[in-house]
Design a protein that fits this description.
By secondary structure, this protein is an alpha/beta fold. The chain is built from 14 helices and 13 strands. The strands form 3 sheets. It has a 7-stranded mixed beta sheet, with helices on both faces. A 4-stranded antiparallel beta sheet has the order 9-10-13-12, with helices on one face. The chain has a two-stranded parallel ribbon with strand order 1-11.
């Protein structure tokens, strides 16, 4: 008889993600280097050239990395005007999501997750033995949450926590301060996990940092997304000192490698490069919106740079484009089998996407009943 895992593992489903799947492409005989990837929502104009010039010899890889990521944390503290003790650096925000679940969720706890949203929230909740309470938002609202509905659910079920992705992935909906404060006021002593992984791609933002003084708020942010560092994995949590202490206790030692720490500290000195990329992203997004709309696609409004496109059969649509060197995010695993998600890349790459989609649509090869 084989050794059985914990009961929580028996039906645990891995959350699919965007990005290049090399095994999949290999089985299709496709060179991964030939793919233009619109399935990930990182900054297409970063990292800066200075980061690409870092050599292994510049990093002390013969020593363990700093478990506290002291230099990077200090740079973040200066940038955010938040004390270092209120920051925990992680190997991407996904690691931090799991640390939150490990530190705070117990067997049977109810955790509210408005959907569609990032699939790793549910995975983390289930690993901890807690119960995800998934509230599906309405198509007629373009999957934007009705705050009064969320408040009613909180009052009825008294969840231990709620995950709010702001702006939301995959819809791009950005909630106002008033809406977040309304949820927080109803939550009582419950934990609000405010995932701001894509905040840098919003034009008009409000600062949530003062909310950590409430003592039941964790803010997550992603350097992976902002600075195009998915291969290094960098994110950080901002919270009260007590919450950070608890997360640090369950955090693995040396969780952020030395190269990632050095790059993170260096890239924060080049904020102008990030700001310079934002107008280019807006132009690329608007180009895609205009061209896809002219091709007859239904596009959902998004406050972020990425957006949803209704295509009918998302899985087939993605597979067809993949064979032509284009990758988009299939929304099926997000509960949106009729939608794909697209994030802009450089204008020449966006033009390539439009050319391929236009030709395939004209030939009736996209399975949309053209």
């Amino acid at each position: 008889m084989s050794l059985l895992p914990r009961p929580e593992m028996e039906n645990l489903q891995v959350s699919p993600h965007g990005g290049i799947n090399r095994a999949e492409l290999s089985s299709m005989g496709i060179d991964p280097e030939a793919i233009i990837d619109f399935s990930v929502c990182t900054n297409p104009f970063l990292p800066p050239p200075s980061v690409r010039q870092i050599r292994l010899g510049d990093v002390s890889i013969e020593q363990y990395p700093d478990s506290e990521a002291t230099e990077l944390k200090q740079r973040l503290s200066e940038k955010l005007s938040v004390p270092p003790d209120n920051i925990l650096v992680g190997s991407g925000t996904t690691e931090l999501i799991r640390l939150i679940a490990l530190a705070y969720f117990r067997q049977g706890d109810i955790v509210l997750i408005p959907e569609p949203t990032y699939g790793e929230y549910e995975v983390a909740v289930r690993i901890a033995g807690a119960k995800p309470f998934k509230h599906w938002m309405r198509a007629e609202d373009n999957f934007a949450p009705r705050i009064e509905d969320i408040a009613d659910l909180i009052k009825k079920h008294h969840p231990k926590a709620i995950f709010i992705c702001n702006p939301n992935n995959p819809t791009g909906k950005y909630l106002s301060r008033q809406e977040i404060e309304s949820i927080l006021a109803t939550l009582g002593r419950g934990l609000l996990v405010l995932d701001e992984a894509y905040l840098a791609f919003i034009d008009r933002t409000w600062s949530s940092l003062d909310l950590i003084s409430k003592g039941n708020v964790v803010i997550l942010r992603s350097m992976t997304k902002d600075y195009a560092l998915p291969g290094l994995r960098l994110g950080y949590a901002i919270a009260s000192g007590g919450i950070i202490d608890n997360l640090r206790r369950v955090c693995p030692p040396w969780n952020v490698n030395a190269v990632a720490q050095k790059v993170g500290a260096m890239i924060l000195e080049d904020e102008d490069y990030l700001e310079q990329s934002k107008p280019q992203i807006r132009v690329a997004k608007q180009f895609l919106l205009n061209e896809l709309s002219q091709l007859g696609f239904e596009l959902l409004p998004s406050d972020a740079h990425y957006f949803l496109v209704k295509v009918g059969n998302a899985r087939a649509f993605r597979a067809t484009l993949l064979r032509h060197g284009i990758q988009v995010r299939d929304g099926t695993s997000l509960g949106l089998p009729e939608y794909i998600r697209i994030a802009p890349r450089t204008l020449p790459e966006c033009q390539r996407l439009i050319d391929v989609v236009g030709k395939l649509k004209e030939k009736g090869e996209l399975g949309m009943g053209d």
